[in-house]
Amino acid sequence: MSEFLTGHAKAHTNIALIKYWGKADSNLILPTNDSISLTLDEFYTETSVKFRSDLKQNILTIDQKQQPTNKLKRVNRIIKHFSDMWDGPKFAEITSDNHVPNSAGLASSASAMAALSGATMKATQTKLSLKELSSVARLGSGSATRSIFGNFVHWHRGHDHDSSYAEPLESPAEFKINMLTVVINDQPKRISSTNGMSNTAQTSPFFKEWTNTANQAIDEMKQAIKSGNFSKIGEMAENNAMQMHATTLSSNPPFTYFEPDTLKVLQIIQQLRHDGIECYATIDAGPNVKIICQNNNLNQIKNSLLSEFNENQLIVAHMGPGIKIY
Ligand code: DP6
Description:
Blueprint: E1 6-18, E2 23-25, E3 30-31, E4 35-51, E5 59-62, E6 65-66, H1 73-83, E7 92-99, H2 109-123, H3 130-138, E8 152-155, E9 166-168, E10 178-182, H4 193-203, H5 207-226, H6 230-249, H7 260-274, E11 280-283, E12 289-293, H8 298-305, E13 314-317, E14 324-325
Helix pairs in contact: 1-2, 2-3, 5-6
The structure holds ligand DP6.
């Protein structure tokens, strides 16, 4: 019997090229705009879920540390979503390990909630397509929707639970891009993505324009990915990230995720481009900069960064695979 109660999954994190920033429905986590991401090979979460009839609540251990039960709201939601559909036990013991380079400050709810959804689906013997699984992962964290699939992924904002899902995007087989992360600060961020997007949606006069612009960028970005147009992908991703961060500066009270070193990296990138070395920046809800680049320029970009940063602040990731459930 016990093998029917256990499931395992491994999911990789992703970085958005067109960002998700704003919720149309904060309970269902329906976003105000579609988003497009790249799944990364280097950072992932492995999770095991074991349903036990003796439990009265879920137990979560992350990287060998048991988590306080009042911190399990999103986890409980995913477990309940599946356990409501069966007659088996309602609570589970969950063990999760994050594989991120030491103190990179890049641990992400995306890989965690995707892996949890996959492992719970397996443990409860629920049969969902990956598309349906992506909608469930969304209930844990918006960006997790995209971590079900590998490489380039499109999350359709939708208008209800079933219509808000992710699907993989085709790109030419030989087309490869890298993401070089410059770790500027590895401490937990002061304003979470959840709170940051909610503050901007409520107070920034630019928020509506951000939403429209991001939605309008989707088709063009899809086309650039389909044809493997690196310059277009990079330019659009950098523009989109700066537009997202402009909404934080225009919020009331204003805030920013940037730190002085964030701007230093942006200046190095601009200088590199000026010198004919193609690379582009994207930044999430934190100070770390992710540099979008191709193999041929990687060493030169690293060398320029080494004038200001240490080797251990630079992490290279490549395109990564979709979820594995076992
Ligand atoms: C800036 O997925 O962490 O990384 O849905 O509230 O859990 P919740 O937010 P989350 O937000 C991610 C925001 C972002 C952009 C992106 O990944 O698209």
